[in-house]
Every structure is written in structure tokens, then in C-alpha cells.
Design goal:
Shape: globular
Number of helices: 3
Helix content: 25-40%
Structural class: alpha+beta
Radius of gyration: 14 Å
Number of strands: 4
């Protein structure tokens, strides 16, 4: 199972609201825009992977699958009262699942959505 519909931002005006009023952080492969929603029961996420990132739909869909899988694995750790957008940059097309997860965790730490200790939970002995 992926990210349930109630956890997704789908409408253009909701996307735009997070873009216009949210804070943004970025690393080399992802940009995260986030905005607090104190009345929310759970977080909502929008995922954007443009044609500049992957020229073929297969590539863009794979990146989105990796992002959704990472969110599923981090579900209990992410804050509930927030809407956020994840925008993939060109380098995201070169990442495998482990690389995607590591880069997203780094971006979430930069955004203050995960504690810095979360960075250590994805390192493998072969990633040095």
C-alpha cells in the first residue's frame, strides 16, 4: 500500500498555498516546502517530479514510488500537523531506493520535521 488519499495534497490551490505561504529547504536532490496546519489529524503530502528530472514517465513514476515508500517507512516519525510538498530535482533520477530515503531524511532534518538523530538510522557500512 502507498500513501493513502487522505494523506495527499491533490488540488492545485492547496499546492499553491503551501508554495506561497510555506517555508522551504533543499538539498541536492529534493526541495521540501512545508506549512503548519494545527487543526490537522495527520500530515498531507504533495509530490512533484517534473519532466526536467526524468524525461520518461517510467523514470518519474519510479522516483515517486521511492518517495512514497520512504514516507511509508517514516510515517510514525513525521509530524502530524503539517502539509508539505516534495519536489524532486534532476539528481533524484540517479538515486536508488536507499539513496532516495537517505536524501529525503536529510531534507526532513533540514526542515526540522525529523530530529538530527534520524540521519544516523539510514547509514550502511557500504555507504562511506
Amino acid at each position: 500500500m502507498g500513501v493513502r488519499k487522505s494523506y495527499r495534497i491533490k488540488k492545485e490551490d492547496e499546492f499553491q498555498d503551501v508554495f506561497d505561504h510555506g517555508q522551504s529547504v533543499a538539498n541536492r536532490n529534493f526541495v521540501i516546502y512545508h506549512i503548519a496546519r494545527p487543526d490537522a489529524k495527520h500530515y498531507r503530502v504533495g509530490i512533484s517530479v517534473g519532466k526536467k528530472v526524468g524525461h520518461f514517465a517510467v523514470t518519474r513514476n519510479q522516483i515517486k514510488r521511492y518517495i512514497r515508500q520512504t514516507l511509508l517507512e517514516l510515517k510514525g516519525q513525521l509530524p502530524d500537523q503539517v502539509d508539505f510538498l516534495i519536489i524532486a530535482r534532476k539528481g533524484a533520477a540517479e538515486l536508488d531506493m536507499a539513496g532516495t530515503k537517505q536524501n529525503l531524511i536529510h531534507a526532513f532534518v533540514l526542515a526540522g520535521m525529523l530530529p538530527p538523530s534520524a540521519l544516523g538510522s539510514t547509514t550502511h557500512s557500504s555507504s562511506k
